[in-house]
UniProtKB/TrEMBL annotation:
Keywords: Signal. The keyword Signal applies. Residues 1-22 form the signal peptide. This is Lipoprotein.
């Protein structure tokens, strides 16, 4: 067996994993609140947990109306090399509404990284504390 087939298996696995993330976004459930994610520059903001439970898709949150805590991870300089920084943050909001579309928007000012939760009219309804960052 040559080295090339052995390298092909991990490469194919990576392609399949990335293609699953790049698939079309599902339709929004009108009985749920939808939270999209927006990051700056070369960073990737990923949905991690709702109320302590892992999300099924890191590209968005979908929650029942009411109060929820959303945990996110920001991969700064998301290249996967030693320069990448992984940052954790969370936002709590008590009044998610069914059918409403929210957006969690990351912003950074120097080393300080945070995110604002805005509703569909662009009004900020909640804000994270500064993210906690560690080298990736």
């Amino acid at each position: 067996m040559t080295v090339k087939p052995l390298l092909l298996i991990p490469s194919l696995s990576l392609v399949l994993l990335l293609s699953a993330c790049a698939g079309p976004m599902p339709k929004q459930d009108p009985a749920q609140a939808w939270i999209g994610l927006k990051e700056e520059g070369t960073s990737d903001l990923m949905a991690e947990r709702v109320d302590g439970k892992n999300t099924r898709d890191g590209r968005y949150f979908e929650v029942t109306p009411g109060a929820h805590r959303l945990d996110v991870t920001l991969y700064e300089g998301a290249t996967g090399d030693q320069n990448q920084v992984d940052c954790q943050g969370d936002v709590q909001y008590k009044a998610f509404k069914a059918g409403e579309h929210y957006q969690l928007i990351e912003s950074s000012l120097g080393p300080e990284i945070s995110a604002a939760l805005v509703d569909s009219s662009g009004k900020e309804v909640a804000h994270t504390a500064d993210f906690t960052c560690m080298p990736g």
